């Protein structure tokens, strides 16, 4: 199994979906890289993109077309200006001209060059995307990629050993192995993760990179808590985080504060120690991230975009309302969470198109529960138990986004994942884990079997559940 780093699980990207926005964007970048490597980039006169399976069915609501267009135009999802993303993609479509890789202008006809195969699914994986470049000598170059969840992109003939030359000193595929390494060396989970991360880079770089993820998460919460309006896509969902923020701080509903983030955080901390209000803050943090996510905002994929609000909300809860909060704690939280995410990726899936929402919100909740349990002083066994409890109560959760938009039920669902994570961590640190009757490995296996039993219509197709009963005309680029 391919080794997975903390920076594979957590990636800076743009909303609204890791598998349907970030993955296709990365696939477009990879295709451009392939053309450049082969020396064919300079001869490309047209590029056609075909979307299959779940990418086609919910791509319009998930911004897949926008991601493909901007990826082909050479924009970088991690650094590009997030304001006006849709307008830039729409402008390219309206002009009928695309600057390939930011270097060469070629023709682009939306109806011909971005094709949604609604009734076709490629056998390897439901999220298939094929790029075909026509060259000036009349020949064609085609590559097919699969967006397998969490922004991970692979090809059918993909062999991990050919791509990653890193050998981890303490490889883990099961929670029992995590526990065994920690017991043998007297480590906590983040210590074990850091030992493995050294195979990629020095410890200082890992720490700095993880703190940078936290910076992006904080800024995302802050932006979401200070932005009003209606989400794009046609569902007319009004943003709530900013209203909640003002209400919690006792501010005038019409006020538009521009105080700096640190000052705002101090006000949040001072505002309450009351359970109901803390609960409301955690919900507000999660809403803020996922409202940003729904608007092509900059988020950290954790481990997916649809579930990007759970971990920042729980981490912000720790940061604002825990007396022991520190930057070291933040790093340890995220390292612990990444180990849990990688166990789910290796033993089950983090793709809603493969496993429904249990694979997104369920996994993020399990990750957050373990991270928080560690920060609250939990043992290794208690952290694993916290992850198990959180997932146990997400088993079977389907993915049925209305209109294929990552808004309903997705945005509120992040609040539920965050609250369950906090509950799971608190239960675990109050328990003797040797009395637990279900292990994390067992719940991961159960989640995977449940995923396989789940009907296809409940796996990010917008053809079942809420998506069937609430209709919306999706407005897209
Ligand atoms: S329902 Fe869950 S899995 Fe599906 S798009 Fe929304 S958050 Fe993601």
Walk me through what this model shows:
The chain has 21 helices and 9 strands. The chain has 477 residues and is α+β, with helices and mostly antiparallel strands. It folds into 2 domains: 6-163, 2-Layer Sandwich (60s Ribosomal Protein L30, Chain: A); 175-469, no CATH class. It has a 5-stranded mixed β-sheet. A two-stranded antiparallel ribbon has the order 1-9. The relative contact order is 0.14. The mean pLDDT is 94. Bound molecules: iron/sulfur cluster. Iron/sulfur cluster (SF4) binds next to helix 19.
Our count of helices gives 21
Name the average pLDDT. 94
What's the helical proportion of residues? 40-55%
Global Rg: 22 Å
Distance between the termini: 38 Å
Main β-sheet, spatial strand arrangement: 5-2-6-7-8
Question: Which small molecules are bound?
Answer: iron/sulfur cluster
Counting helices, strands and paired strands, the structural category is: alpha+beta
Relative strand content: 5-15%
Low-confidence parts lasting 5 or more residues at pLDDT below 50? none
Q: Which shape, going by the Cα principal axes?
A: globular
- Assembly type: single chain
Largest sheet: 5 strands, mixed
**Count the strands?**
9
Number of domains: 2
SSE series: HEHEHHHEEHEEEEHHHHHHHEHHHHHHHH
Task: Describe the secondary-structure layout.
Layout lengths: L5 H4 L1 E4 L3 H20 L6 E9 H10 L1 H9 L12 H11 L1 E4 L3 E4 L2 H4 E4 L10 E8 L4 E10 L2 E3 L5 H4 L11 H11 L3 H9 L5 H22 L16 H8 L12 H11 L3 H20 L3 E4 L8 H12 L5 H21 L4 H4 L5 H15 L4 H13 L17 H20 L10 H14 L12 H4 L8
Parallel strand pairs: 2-5
Antiparallel strand pairs: 1-9, 2-6, 3-4, 6-7, 7-8
Helix pairs in contact: 2-4, 4-5, 9-15, 10-13, 10-15, 11-13, 13-14, 13-19, 14-17, 14-19, 15-17, 17-18, 17-19, 18-19, 18-20
The structure holds iron/sulfur cluster.
Iron/sulfur cluster binds next to helix 19.
């Amino acid at each position: 199994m391919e080794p997975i780093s903390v920076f594979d699980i957590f990636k800076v990207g743009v909303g609204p979906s890791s598998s349907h926005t970030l993955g296709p964007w990365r696939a477009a970048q990879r295709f451009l890289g392939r053309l450049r490597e082969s020396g064919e980039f300079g001869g490309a006169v047209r590029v056609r993109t075909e979307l299959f399976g779940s990418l086609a069915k919910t791509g319009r609501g998930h911004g897949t077309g926008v991601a493909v267009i901007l990826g082909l135009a050479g924009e970088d999802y991690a650094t590009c200006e997030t304001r006006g993303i849709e307008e830039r993609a729409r402008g390219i479509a309206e002009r009928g001209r695309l600057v390939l890789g930011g270097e060469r202008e070629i023709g682009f006809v939306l109806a011909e060059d971005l094709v949604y195969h609604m009734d076709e699914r490629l056998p390897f994986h439901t999220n298939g995307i094929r790029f075909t470049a026509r060259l000036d000598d009349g020949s064609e170059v085609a590559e097919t990629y699969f967006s397998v969840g969490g922004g991970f992109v692979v090809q059918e003939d993909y062999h991990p050993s050919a791509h990653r030359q890193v050998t981890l000193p303490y490889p883990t595929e099961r929670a029992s192995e995590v526990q065994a390494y920690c017991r043998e060396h007297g480590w906590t989970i983040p210590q074990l993760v850091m030992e493995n991360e050294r195979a990629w880079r020095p410890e200082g770089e890992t720490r700095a990179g993880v703190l940078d993820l936290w910076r992006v998460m904080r800024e995302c919460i802050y932006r979401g808590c200070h932005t009003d309006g209606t989400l794009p896509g046609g569902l007319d969902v009004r943003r709530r985080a900013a209203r909640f923020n003002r209400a919690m701080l006792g501010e005038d509903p019409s006020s538009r504060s521009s105080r700096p983030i640190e000052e705002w955080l101090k006000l949040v901390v001072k505002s309450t120690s009351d359970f109901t209000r803390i609960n409301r803050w955690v919900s507000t943090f999660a809403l803020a991230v996922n409202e940003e996510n729904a608007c092509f905002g900059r988020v950290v994929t954790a481990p997916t975009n649809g579930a990007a609000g759970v971990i920042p909300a729980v981490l912000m809860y720790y940061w604002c309302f825990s007396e022991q909060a520190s930057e070291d704690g933040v790093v340890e939280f995220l390292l612990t969470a990444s180990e849990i995410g990688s166990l789910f990726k290796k033993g089950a899936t983090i793709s809603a198109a493969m496993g429904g929402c249990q694979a997104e919100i369920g996994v993020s909740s399990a990750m957050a529960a373990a991270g928080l349990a560690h920060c609250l002083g939990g043992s290794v066994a208690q952290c694993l138990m916290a992850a198990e409890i959180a997932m146990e109560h997400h088993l079977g959760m389907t993915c049925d986004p209305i209109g294929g938009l990552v808004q309903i039920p997705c945005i509120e669902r992040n609040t539920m994942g965050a609250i369950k994570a906090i509950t799971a961590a608190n239960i675990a640190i109050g328990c003797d884990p040797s009395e637990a009757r279900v292990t994390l490995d067992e719940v991961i296996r159960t989640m995977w079997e449940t995923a396989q039993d789940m009907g296809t219509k409940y796996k990010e197709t917008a053809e079942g559940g809420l998506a069937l009963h609430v209709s919306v005309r999706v407005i897209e680029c």
